[in-house]
Structure to design on (283 residues):
């Protein structure tokens, strides 16, 4: 299993907030994204950029993957953002907002140097071009920018996210076809833990590898949802054992818990076990 698929919780925080940066080094999220875009006022962007670079160089992030979200291509600040962080040691990647097509993706990869690029799909054009964006060499993840996308679609918010289903599916399918990661969008109602759990569960069931977050209080819920449950581990062990026994007895087909077992089911069970092992290894 690729390391990136173990990033269950991806926390965005403003790079202009030094207290948030200090606190983030103690949180149980799997990744931290120092934000230079939406969370930073225009006048504060140069200082935020310097603070983000300093935070990367200071280190101390432990198991947490550290990324920086730059300002969108074509904005006043984007070129300087890339220039400041391209090749920065200790950085796991660059998150690029509002990637609209393969041309945008290629520009981001070129400006990022050797750093992996996470492309945010948060416009209708980006959804339509998701396949081409994901297939661009150097793009290692797609991130659903659901808040901006819903606004552009004129979609009304619904707990089941039915207006977003096509877009979410397109993002996951594009990522899987390109063999890269996919991360679900943020949940903005900070007081609704049940709603967060329901949306995270939906994102997991869609096939997303993890979920982006806007507050530390969301980490535990999302980590739990995107981690294998005790029941899933028991089922995975049992299914693999049943398949192994069938092979040992020269039986090409077997069942487990009343269901047919094929190679794809075994592979899925093995992914569950590898995820659990990797999570346990992180402590």
């Amino acid at each position: 299993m690729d390391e990136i698929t173990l990033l269950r919780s991806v926390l965005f925080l403003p790079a202009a907030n030094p207290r948030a940066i200090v606190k983030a080094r103690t949180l149980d999220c799997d990744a931290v994204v120092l934000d230079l875009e939406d969370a930073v006022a225009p006048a504060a962007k140069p200082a935020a950029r310097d603070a983000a670079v300093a935070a990367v160089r200071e280190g101390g992030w432990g198991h947490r993957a550290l990324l920086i979200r730059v300002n969108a291509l074509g904005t006043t600040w984007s070129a300087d953002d890339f220039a400041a962080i391209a090749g920065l040691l200790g950085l796991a990647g660059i998150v690029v907002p509002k990637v609209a097509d393969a041309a945008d993706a290629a520009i981001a990869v070129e400006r990022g140097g050797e750093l992996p690029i996470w492309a945010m799909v948060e416009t209708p054009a980006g959804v339509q071009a998701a396949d081409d964006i994901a297939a661009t060499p150097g793009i290692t993840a797609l991130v659903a920018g659901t808040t901006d996308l819903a606004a552009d679609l004129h979609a009304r918010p619904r707990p089941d996210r039915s207006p977003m289903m096509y877009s979410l599916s397109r993002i996951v399918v594009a990522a899987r076809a390109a063999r890269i990661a996919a991360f679900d969008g943020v949940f903005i109602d900070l007081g609704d833990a049940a709603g967060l759990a329901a949306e995270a569960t939906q994102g997991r069931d869609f096939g997303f590898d993890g979920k982006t977050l806007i507050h530390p209080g969301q980490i535990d819920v999302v980590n739990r949802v995107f981690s294998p449950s005790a029941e899933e581990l028991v089922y995975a062990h049992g299914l693999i054992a049943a398949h192994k026994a069938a092979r040992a007895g020269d039986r090409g087909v077997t069942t487990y818990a009343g269901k047919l077992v094929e190679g794809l089911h075994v592979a899925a069970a093995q992914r569950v076990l590898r995820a659990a092992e990797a999570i346990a290894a992180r402590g």
User: Anything to note?
Assistant: Residues 230-281 form one domain. The mean pLDDT is 94. Residues 230-248 form the longest helix (19 residues).
